[in-house]
Amino acid sequence: MRAICLLGAAVRPDGPSPALRRRAEHAAMLWQSDRSQVVLACGGAGNGRVTEAEAAARLLGEGGVPEDAILLESRSRTTWENLLFGRPILQEIGATSLVIVTDPDHLPRARLVAAKLGLTATGSAPSGPRPATARLKGLLREGPALLVYALRPRA
């Protein structure tokens, strides 16, 4: 079975961030192309009471993904934890391959984490315009974070 792993992004007091919306819309589109798969929505609670996974699940439902095709990992706070805490859920359902959904600049780090955790994964990122500030912030964050994660031992 193939699973889609939707990585978390911020949930603000007024609702899901644009990043979470983009990712959830993209994951729903991927699910629509092959309805035999499941979507694992990842992400714990940040500053709000709704977890990133719960907010993503709502968006997935709005995108046509039925509730029984959505799994939640709602404890994680980092990319590493998204996949670490998601791994037992994926193993329990017998997922043999994984498509990680996140933003383009985040995808190399997410795939590195998957490899370090022994997960067979590809990646898919939403296309389309993103604000220049979001792209710049992503690039500035991802370079150092990729280095830190590259130095982290396998789990």
From TrEMBL:
Single GO cellular component term: plasma membrane
Top-level lineage group: Bacteria
Coiled-coil regions listed: none
Domain called DUF218: residue spans: 3-133
One Pfam family per UniProt: DUF218
PANTHER family to which the protein is assigned, alphabetical: DUF218 DOMAIN-CONTAINING PROTEIN, INNER MEMBRANE PROTEIN, PROBABLE PERMEASE
Identification of the protein by name: YdcF family protein
Organism: Histidinibacterium aquaticum
